[in-house]
Specification:
The chain is of the alpha/beta class. The protein contains seven helices and 15 strands. It has one domain: Ribonuclease Z/Hydroxyacylglutathione hydrolase-like (Metallo-beta-lactamase, Chain A, 4-Layer Sandwich), CATH 3.60.15.
Length: about 210
């Protein structure tokens, strides 16, 4: 497990595929999480301040490594789940999880969906943008928080790389187009907080990412 802190953003890394989950204080005592890899719910109980609450969970995409603890989080916190699409066993790739010996994630209910384009929403006191960035998966969303100069890119954009496109619903051409149209126009100093690995910035990736 790795814990990272940056202003109001905390990072957890865990699960079989070392997936990143994030916790953001969107208002005093009100938190928003991004993705829920295995172990995230247990970690959250240890880092949430007394009397604080997790109000919302934002899903970057429903691949099994990013949603392992969603149901547990909902049961323990009653948080609202936001995603590109309703829960789907096809989107979670549960067959791949079984073939790799990883437990299938339990199903959950998505409260609000953001299917295509760009959507602006206010959660607690923070304004977010849900950016549809298909290519790694059909339901990929990047969550942009301008006030924190950060974008949570899931498996669309990594430091020095992009998401794999050989899984169901993947398309290399579509992913590069999504990144160029939705992510690279963000301010260059915007921090890229991906679903796996280290952080970067939009400016760094625009200049040095070999896939772009």
């Amino acid at each position: 497990m790795v814990l990272r802190m940056r202003s109001q953003i905390q990072q957890y890394t865990g699960g079989p595929l070392m997936c990143n989950g994030y916790l953001v204080e969107a208002a005093p005592g009100v938190f928003v999480a991004i993705d829920a890899p295995a172990g995230f719910a247990d970690w959250l109980r240890g880092v949430l301040p007394p009397n604080a609450r997790l109000a919302h969970l934002l899903i970057t995409h429903q691949h099994f490594d990013h949603i392992a603890d969603v149901r547990q989080l909902v049961q323990e916190t009653a948080c609202e789940v936001h995603a590109c699409a309703p829960y789907s066993a096809q989107l979670t790739l549960e067959g791949h999880a079984r073939s790799w010996g990883i437990p299938e994630p339990p199903s959950f209910r998505v409260v609000r969906t953001y299917p295509e384009g760009t959507h602006e929403l206010r959660l607690a006191d923070a304004v977010w943008q849900a950016l549809h960035v298909p290519g790694h998966s059909t339901d990929s969303l990047a969550w942009y928080l301008a006030d924190a100069r950060a974008v949570f890119t899931g498996d669309a954009l990594f430091a020095g790389s992009i998401g794999r496109t050989d899984l169901p619903g993947g398309s290399a051409a579509q992913l590069v187009q999504s990144i160029r149209e939705k992510l690279l126009p963000l301010p260059p100093r915007t921090e890229v907080l991906p679903g796996h690995g280290a952080s970067s910035t939009i400016g760094e990736e625009e200049i040095n990412n070999p896939f772009l």
